[in-house]
Design goal:
6-stranded antiparallel β-sheet, globular, mainly beta, 26 strands
């Protein structure tokens, strides 16, 4: 009797642990929380094998202090983090196409300038300035397929009309103005083939203008009637990452348009925000202010559970929406549903274990009586 009861009780506990978490599927995780010398991690951008973001402070051995913003790069496959900038100027708004990294640097005497860094080598330490040092401000760079665009604006007694600048990172050619000087242009976006921006005539009328990079001698043209820019860093193919409020804070969700299902990526007590996706990689910001960290889920399970309907109906979207990260999992249940399920299974397993123990006690007593 003394030897059998501990074994039975142990098996019951093992069953409880195994059955109590059927909806949690762990994914490979990486986070800046392991690097304690940087803070205020924010604005992640993700493409291919590259994750970039801005933060205050520096990795061990860096010269810069914690008073300005620096740019950081992660090689996702090797999990190697690089501090790209190490100076006393604010480096912000990083963007990447997986091959190149661009950002905006504020220099006290030069104003805002655009810098380029070749991810796989070839760039000087800290990158190279690709905007013109001509007294104009350059800001909000975007990059795709080696093409870089940004807004350039002369700041004198007042702000002059903005221009859209184009630079080819592959052969280091440019920059050149592709919008001209007649109108105020801003907010460029691009996908590697087309550049689109907002053009204003200064009288309250604004239109969208497109510029076809694939055509011979491209010229800016008004966007056609009903034109909608579809590109977003929160969507890759059928997959879209978004945020929703769970009643306590914001969590990251994944929506698969082909399966018409939502899957929860985070379940924690942090404010999760700014999700980005590329392939099966998802990055986001967990937390706020000084304690904000970057989280990367490098191997998200996109497949539906085996017991899900083969032809699911379109689900109701989660509450909240738009743009939190400790634990990372993929599952269709909410935090409350998962907790209730685990509690029910725990109670069931404990009752089963008690019945088994009672059976062996009575059997032992009966064998002693005879």
């Amino acid at each position: 009797m003394k030897s059998k009861l501990p074994v039975i009780f142990y098996l019951a506990i093992v069953a409880l642990i195994a059955d109590g978490n059927p909806l949690v599927h762990a994914a490979e995780m990486w986070t800046t929380a392991n690097t304690t010398t940087i803070s205020h991690n924010s604005f992640p951008q993700l493409k291919g094998n590259s994750l970039v973001w801005q933060a205050r402070g520096g990795i061990p051995g860096a010269k810069s202090g914690s008073g300005d913003w620096e740019i950081f790069l992660l090689d996702i496959d090797r999990k190697v983090m690089t501090q790209v900038t190490d100076d006393n100027y604010d480096d912000i708004s990083p963007q990447t196409d997986g091959e190149y990294l661009v950002w905006q640097k504020h220099h006290p005497s030069r104003g805002n300038q655009i810098y380029l860094y070749e991810i796989h080598g070839g760039s000087p330490a800290g990158g190279r300035m690709i905007s013109s040092n001509d007294g104009t401000d350059h800001y909000a760079p975007q990059i795709a397929a080696g093409w870089v665009v940004w807004t350039s604006q002369l700041v004198a007694q007042s702000f002059e009309p903005g221009q859209i600048m184009l630079y080819d990172a592959r052969d280091l050619s440019g920059p050149e103005s592709i919008s001209g000087h007649a109108f105020d242009c801003s907010s460029p976006r691009m996908d590697g083939e087309t550049v689109v921006w907002t053009q204003s005539d200064g009288k309250g009328t604004a239109i969208l203008v497109t510029y076809d990079l694939t055509s011979e001698g491209p010229q800016p043209k008004p966007a056609p009637q009903g034109f909608v820019w579809q590109e977003t860093l929160q969507t890759d193919g059928d997959l879209t990452v978004l945020t929703a409020h769970d009643g306590t804070d914001r969590e990251i969700l994944l929506y698969d348009a082909s399966l018409k299902t939502y899957k929860q990526i985070t379940d924690n007590d942090l404010e999760d925000s700014y999700p980005r996706i590329s392939g099966t990689h998802i990055a986001w910001v967990g937390g706020e202010g000084q304690s904000a960290e970057i989280f990367l889920s490098a191997d998200v399970d996109m497949e539906p559970d085996d017991d899900e309907d083969d032809d699911p109906e379109e689900p109701d979207p989660p509450s909240g929406g738009g743009g939190g990260g400790g634990s990372c999992f993929v599952g269709t249940a909410s935090r409350g549903e998962t907790t209730m399920c685990a509690v029910c299974m725990m109670i069931g397993c404990l009752i089963s274990a008690a019945l088994v123990i009672l059976f062996w006690v009575r059997r032992d007593q009966t064998s002693r009586h005879f």
